[in-house]
Amino acid sequence: MKRIYTSNDVEIYKNWLKKNLSEEKYIHSIGTMEQALELAKKFNVDYDENKIKIAALLHDCAKCFTVDKLKEHLEKNEDICVDFDLANYKTYHAPVGCCVAKKEFNIDDQEILDAIKYHTVGRVGMSDFEKIVFLSDKIEPKTRNADFRKMILEELDKENGLNRACLLCFKYTIKSLLDRNLPICKESINAYNYILSLVTADKN
Asked: Which CATH code is given to the segment(s) 7-144?
């Protein structure tokens, strides 16, 4: 039987995060959850409210793990992480967060797991559910840069706004990585090209 997610689950995960994240990351997680709900309503995404709350809330559940602990999880859970490009250690917390959600929290919903796993690098074929969690992580108002948030919100208000906003996020992320001489995961490049094709196709 497919699991039904409840508001009680949300409260349990909040409590876990409060104990396992820094104060700033906990505040960020709450902000991401609230932002995701707003975007889901804005774009009339067919969603279960508790599901999107949980995906957004747990996206950074492994963020405060040490690099050694992250690597340990990656080694133990190759079945989950096998298709994830590990070029940049700053992205490790995403697939590990998926592992934590699946194996420690017993979350079996693939939409939730994929939204957590790909919230940093994106991927080709991202669902609207995944795009909303991806964007909410970047623009929640509690800890993120206000000017960048404003730019993304302006894109969201345009036609095909969800894809336009994702494209701008990928542009800034890739540019930031280039400026800092950091490796770029192949998923991000492929996701950028994929989203660009959606935006340019809409213009033709």
From this structure: 1.10.3210.10
